[in-house]
Amino acid sequence: EPVYIEFTNTKNGDVIFSANNVMLGDSIVFPEPPSRFEANTAFQIYNSADRTTLLQAVTFHTSCSQPFFTGQQFGALSVCGYRTENGNIFSCEVDAQFVYTITNLADNSLNLDTLDYEFAIGDGEVSFGTRNFNGAPLLGNGERNERFNVTIDTSTEKIISANGTVTGSTPATDIECKASDSYTERVGPTPPPPPPTMAPKGTRRKLYNEDLGNKGPKSIVKRTQKQATWWRI
């Protein structure tokens, strides 16, 4: 069933953004973010836009003093992507390529006939087919790459797999050649960033004073918290 989701500022209760008729698996994008989020942001999920039944209420930290990363789960929602105030975009959806590399290990050339391919991303749809080379030559010790563009959702961990079989023949004797190979890899959410590190105790105040003109440690902490604003989830 579709639901109504409302994001609010916990400091004054103002509605930052709302989305209606949201279905399981849908993405929600903030159309125009605020200049910055407060220290905490909340969302409420209702059964409908009239807000008669509250299904879930969650508050999460948005001041950058705690880790915030793609794939992170807050109640029923997970972070699909965001843009920093510097313009850098981080997203769970990654544009990638399956690359099949055909290598001729012999000194003599081969005539390539076909590549039968099959690849899958997690439990999603399996893509398969045949590419015809029509006897295209592959020189001795040469390589040929066949590429397939895909988009991978890394918000949850999944297995990607690829299989391929290539056929060809020798030009002079017309002997058929055939080879197969397979590949698997695990992909998933971006791990959280490591906790901040501090300079050795004896040098910490000296470093702060040199960087900030004797304003002391509190000033640099305050400046660091203002450097990033999360814009999209």
What does this protein look like?
The chain is built from 2 helices and 14 strands; from the N terminus they run ββββββββββββββαα. It is mainly beta and 233 residues long. Strand 3 and strand 4 form a beta hairpin.
The largest β sheet comes out as:
4 strands, antiparallel
Whole-angstrom Rg:
27 Å
Compute the separation of the termini in Å: 22 Å
* N to C succession of SSEs: EEEEEEEEEEEEEEHH
Query: Based on DSSP secondary structure assignment, what is the total number of beta strands?
Result: 14
Low-confidence stretches are 198-233
Helix content: under 10%
Q: How would you describe the shape?
A: elongated
Tally of individual helices: 2
Bin the strand percentage: over 45%
Kindly report the average pLDDT value: 78
Keyword list:
233 residues, mainly beta, 4-stranded antiparallel beta sheet, 2 helices, 14 strands, 9% helix, disordered C terminus
List the helices and strands and how they pair.
Elements: E1 3-9, E2 15-22, E3 40-46, E4 54-61, E5 73-74, E6 77-78, E7 81-83, E8 89-91, E9 93-103, E10 110-121, E11 127-138, E12 143-153, E13 158-169, E14 176-187, H1 201-212, H2 217-225
Antiparallel strand pairs: 1-2, 1-3, 3-4, 5-6, 7-8, 9-12, 10-11, 10-13, 13-14
The gist of it:
The protein is mainly beta. 9% of the residues lie in helices and 47% in strands. The chain contains two helices and 14 strands.
